[in-house]
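Cont'd.
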Amino acid sequence: MIKIKFPKLKTLDNVKLHLDALVVGAKEAIKPGTITIEYPRERRLLPDSFRGYVLFSPENCISCFQCSFVCPANAIGMKLAANNRYYPTIDYTKCIFCHFCVDSCPGAALRPTKVHDVVYKNMNEMITSTEEMVKPPKIVREDGYTVEYVIDGVKLILRRIKEKDNLIPEFKPHEKVKEYSACVMPESCLACGICVSSCPSEAINLSVKEKEKELKIDKERCTGCGICVKECPVQILSLVRE
Amino acid sequence: MVDLGLLGLTMQHFIDNMVSIPLIQPLIDYLLGIPVIGFVVAIILWRPMFALLIFPGLATLMTVLLFIIWFERKLTARIQWRRGPLEVLRWAEGIIQALADGLRYFFQEVIVHRDAHRPYFLQFPILIFIPVLLPLLFIPVGNIVGIRTPYALPITVAIVSLIPVFIVAIGWASNSRFAYIGTVREAFMYFAYEIPFILAVVSMILVYGTADMVTIVEKQSIPGIILNPIAALVFFISTVMATSRLPFEIPEADQEIAFGPFVEYSGIMFGLVMTIAYEKMYILSLLMSVLFLGGGNGPTIPLLGDLSAVIWMFIKTMVVMVALSFLRSIYARIRLDQALRISWTAMLQISLLAVAIGVVLNLANVV
Amino acid sequence: MTEKELLLDVPVQPPTELFLPIPKKFLEEAYQGDDYLVLVGPQHPGSGHMRIIVRIKGDIIVEAIPDPGYVHRSIEKLAENRLYIQNIPLLERPAIMDTGNLTLGYVRAIESALDIEIPERAKYIRTVLAELSRIGTHLYDAGILAVFMGHTTGFMWPFALREPIVEAITRMSGARITASFVIPGGIRRDVPWNVLEFIRKTTFVIERRLKSFEKIFIRNPTVIARLKGVGVLSKEDAIKFGVVGPFLRASGVEYDVRKVEPYEAYEMLNWDIPVSDDGDSYSRFLVRVEEIAQSISIIRQAVNELRAMPEGNVISEDILADYSNASSDIRGYFFKVFGNLILPQGEYTALTEASRGTLLYSIISDGESNVPYRVRAVTPGWYYLKGFMEALRGERVADLQAIYGSFGYFPPEADR
């Protein structure tokens, strides 16, 4: 237990306290510890892990809907694209930049950027379509300097570098584990065909010959998105590894 | 030569009592030769008129207002690890920020709310310039003085004391509860600083044995602040209270009563009432430099002639004003009852001590 | 001059009666006597929207009735409709800067339900984040206290000092204030050593600059004059009215959840509880200043411990199950791991020492759905509101701001 010590308040102590305050003020006036970053003209160096605007690469997307499921703000919608697959769109009126979607994406199709200052003219523009998410947003860069907080001993220094910060940092995709869907109890299959119609990559093939049903899942085509697992009414599908 | 025979004034009358500036004397001589312009130049450079219009009068007052508002913001920002006003005239660190604000105020709508006493509400911010500008006539700079009288100091103090009355009137005309509380606080603060303030001035009158400011400045071979430092301290603290600066920013307390008496003003009227405190600060700083810092005394620069006193006086006044601005970033606002307690106990005691020192110095005939 | 009143055709009728959440009798009593009723707020009188109905006699406050709820966002109800994991960004939103502690409480309740042990490294990193949040919140409150008293430097400096902390949190988690970094079973990703080193250095900067701050604000005679002996809560009163956190400790009660029921790495670190006996506004402020010093010491010790530990493995194997390759970074497996989190049936409670005091989370699960049946969140602001109102009694009206600031009362946090 630490007992708090109170300052003494006799007349002389009071004068000393007044002087202390004035001297500190004068010192700061002569040599200020300014920490202002003049934002549009210079930009703070943000860490590569900064949670900003989300970019999307469709070639990695397996249409698994996980980003949309995990979004706490319900900002991600899935839109049907021309190739009959569902791709995410982000509504930036709702997005809270928690990046749960980025952390959920199993194919590393979503990637974070350091862009945090996009201007929209109206609310409708803020619902970003998939095509817009593929390339970085248009922003006005007025910055000539990049400012970094550097600590030298007990001093906080604002190091100004005369170059523009790259707002799209390099992205290291995580180690992927190859999973694919498999039917664990073929005898229970109803042959309803829901999995076939739900599969975004057309990997499931169902053949019914009189009483024999055969569910074929193409391992090459299956991306392991797990939609068929969710959809199966008798829950006989499951994600398995090699 | 233009003859104003009707008034019994000739141009020679002004030329006889003109500010002498050797540096630009040829230019003045040339201008005096031109018929109408010569007359105007003669009047402007006539010492009383120079005091009224140039220094310490209107022109300097306006410049100081524009400068000190910017400077205060800049100094506060520097102490607070910020940059302060910057975007207006960026290469000069935003020095014309106050002018830009003034322009904005000028083009803003002046709203007179329904409950206000309309005539007084609009009159007082303008009428308040009378007690603000009148003292400038009596403050001497070297041999430049508007009106020289043996009662200059009492008159100045009396006129300065009128300013709170106008502020109270402004608060009354505003007829709003914040303005009302602010007005009451202003009245209380007036009681708080008035007596120590007058006692400090009285002690200095005793020290110099005269109330004529020109004589006071002449007598200060040793500055008054060394002769009677306690009076200087009391005067300084009273100035802080009178201009309602931190830690005595009680009548205007924007976190508590949102600028108190001035809460209902908008547009250019707000611009006018906002500058009152700064104008008062300017006058009291001039008074302080006359009483305690030796006024226009200082090494004479031969080329500038009478202007050298002007420059010394200006520097001293600015030092006092900067010191007053500096306090804003150091102190918190204290409570009204605490301010009253300080002024009626400690301040009153040391101001009486200052008077005692004044009496002793007067009897010893030091100055 | 004739004045014309313009009538606008607005379909909304303004209310004809002033609604006050107090009995009519009280109003009439106050008006019939010499007392005044002063309404402080609800237009953002301090750190958030709330109203205090103050009954004053002359300049002295006779009674203060709070009218909270202007920033109520029904966080508890919202939490019932979200996945367990989706509640993390929601529950860190009540208070600015307190992200570390607010999420930690909720996550610990989930962990107690699932009965999982989290890796040592995660424990220490969580402790660092919690203490960074604590310093940030205390600085924030000091700034609010300063601006209440018109001390602008005292307002700007803590906010500037908060900036290195915000920078540290950004480098850790990627977001300035809403870190969402603590997840059941650990933290989202491992913190590299250079960031930890930056955090350790930050503490030195804060310590150095706090020394200047101490001279200009904490020990400033005008500040002492405003705070000393104002709004006194005695030890008995503080216990009776259920005051929590630093404000309870300022009244002389040595109680800190971090000591009483240690969690995370607090048991392993060497620190102490600052206590004061006066119970006035100034001691409430000084206790928090001393807590900043303690937090700095905790962070330094924790970072030193972390340096000796192997990197990686910050998420518990128990919760990762098949996806153990994500133990140092959850990226790619977040939904797979937490999307179908279902707690066993029962009620799970966790007490946490948030910056402003005790924080209670209670989760009730029905055992089969992936959303909580009920989440009870009691934030410290709500606990000490009564004590705050009692401290106002008998003080001057001008002291209301000083007492408000000394409690660091934060309406969004109390209203949730």
